[in-house]
Specification:
With 175 residues, the chain is an alpha+beta fold. 30% of the residues lie in helices and 17% in strands. The protein binds flavin mononucleotide (FMN). The site of flavin mononucleotide has 10 residues, from β3.
């Protein structure tokens, strides 16, 4: 079993997937990980829309002109949304939940990738968020942060090389 440190090292964005569905037991573990995410004031503004229907995944993949197409071939997408009226830290809270989903998927041997929806355009007339909200019938007060695409890996990505990390990002005592 990999340690938590190895999990972080091995997590890479996986954008190519096998044509294979994900068992409910694995999906439930991933969703359980999401529900254990910390949130400001424990207000838990996040909610999750699990999309497994091929036709809907295909439509979701069209949310942006680039960057979202990988969803078409994923086994499922977890749309991470948050109630903006519930908490002013909804974006931080939802981001943590999205990352927990990615880490849980990696831990289970699956591949995952974050597809950004918030603050992205679909075209000149419509934002990616408006498109996803309409497609999935999401109420107005919710923001759509991202979709985490998940599937069995069909590409190999190298783990992070610890010798190549940018330690200049770290400052001690003062900047
Ligand atoms: C906030 C955020 C938004 C991202 N949006 C996308 C996206 O829309 N499409 C995509 O293919 N990858 C997206 N990614 C994945 C990044 O490109 C990826 O994490 C980065 O290149 C580092 O690679 P790694 O995840 O393999 O370590 C996003 C990642 C984050 C954290």
């Amino acid at each position: 079993m990999q340690s938590f440190f190895e999990l972080l090292q091995n997590r890479r964005s996986i954008r190519k997937y096998e044509e294979r569905t994900i068992d409910d037991t694995l999906l439930n573990q991933i969703l359980t990980a999401a529900l254990m995410s910390p949130a400001g004031k424990r207000l838990n503004p996040w909610e999750f829309v699990v999309v497994q229907e091929r036709e809907t995944l295909q439509k979701l993949s069209d949310a942006r002109p680039a960057g979202s197409q990988l969803l078409a071939n994923s086994a499922l997408g977890i749309v991470v949304i948050a109630d903006k009226e519930r908490s002013d830290t909804w974006m931080e809270d939802a981001s943590i939940a999205a990352h927990n989903i990615q880490l849980a998927a990696t831990d289970l041997g699956l591949g995952a990738c974050w597809v950004q929806i918030q603050r992205r355009e679909r075209n000149e007339q419509q934002t990616a968020e408006e498109y996803v909200k309409e497609l999935l019938n999401i109420p107005a007060q919710y923001a759509v942060l991202c979709v985490i695409s998940i599937g069995y890996k069909n590409e190999d990505r190298k783990p992070y090389d610890l010798n190549k990390l940018d330690y200049s990002k770290i400052h001690h005592e003062q900047f």
